[in-house]
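Retro notes (design track)

What went well: tokenization of the new backbones is finally stable.
What didn't: we kept losing track of which sequence belonged to which structure.
Fix going forward: every design gets posted as structure first, then sequence, in one message. First example under the new rule, 275 residues:
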């Protein structure tokens, strides 16, 4: 694997994995703690509509997908905040509609010859330089937001009513962080694909939660786990000529089951405290 670093695509893959891990560690923690996994899955699959929009209208992939995903995410957030009892149904509808729109627009695109495998299952070995810069920018935005809104994030994650009483703009912050989730999903699609992206956002934070006693510790451990999964998965994909996105997720899944076995054999009394 060390010899492979002489190739630019391998260096790009390592950078992509590093930045994706930072993003997943922070944003994934918010997803898991606030039980937004289904919403995240809805955004990920609705993003397919953005891919169709981008190719049909001839706009840059990142612009079309990002715009479509943000609109879908904000609509889903509004429903979650206003009608939580029906949120899962509405998210499921947008999930299906987004994918349907993407498929129809791709069918109607003249001269369409896009390799959908790279979007569905990702290809970290083919991440272009432009995506690396997008990931770097998003990593800076994500970490800065987490630092600046840390106490507010902690408040709304564990007691949003108390956060309201403290004067925290709960709804506004929900819109902001779910918008950030949408942006993260679109950027990370290149690494593991839109079908598997939600796994990378949820598995590392889920494991980290078991061994954390604060939200900050959970973010740090989640980032470290994501980095390990990305590195091991990338090495296996390169060594055995496997699909990189699926390999990374299988490694993460292996980590998930190992943590479950450890938790079963050696029950931990750690839990995130509100501090």
């Amino acid at each position: 694997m060390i010899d492979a670093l002489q190739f630019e695509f391998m260096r790009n893959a390592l950078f992509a994995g590093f930045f994706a891990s930072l993003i997943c560690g922070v944003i994934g923690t918010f997803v898991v703690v606030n039980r937004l996994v289904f919403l995240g899955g809805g955004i990920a699959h609705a993003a397919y509509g953005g891919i169709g929009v981008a190719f049909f209208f001839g706009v840059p992939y990142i612009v079309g997908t990002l715009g479509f995903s943000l609109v879908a995410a904000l609509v889903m957030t509004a429903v979650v905040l206003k009608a939580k009892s029906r949120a899962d149904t509405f998210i499921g509808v947008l999930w299906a509609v987004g994918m349907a729109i993407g498929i129809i627009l791709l069918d109607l695109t003249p001269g369409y010859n896009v390799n959908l495998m790279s979007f569905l299952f990702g290809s970290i070995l083919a991440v272009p330089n432009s995506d690396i810069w997008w990931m770097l920018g998003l990593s800076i935005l994500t970490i800065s937001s987490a630092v600046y809104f840390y106490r507010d994030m902690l408040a709304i994650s564990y007691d949003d009513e108390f956060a309201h009483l403290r004067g925290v703009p709960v709804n506004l912050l929900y819109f902001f962080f779910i918008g950030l989730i949408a942006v993260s999903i679109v950027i990370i699609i290149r690494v593991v694909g839109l079908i598997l992206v939600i796994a990378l956002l949820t598995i590392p934070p889920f494991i980290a939660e078991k061994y954390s006693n604060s939200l900050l510790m959970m973010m740090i451990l989640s980032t470290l786990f994501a980095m390990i999964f990305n590195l091991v998965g990338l090495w296996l994909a390169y060594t055995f000529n496997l699909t990189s996105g699926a390999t990374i997720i299988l490694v993460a899944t292996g980590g998930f089951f190992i943590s479950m076995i450890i938790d079963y054999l050696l029950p931990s009394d750690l839990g995130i405290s509100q501090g």
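Added context from the reviewer: Residues 28 and 202 are 6 Å apart (CA to CA).
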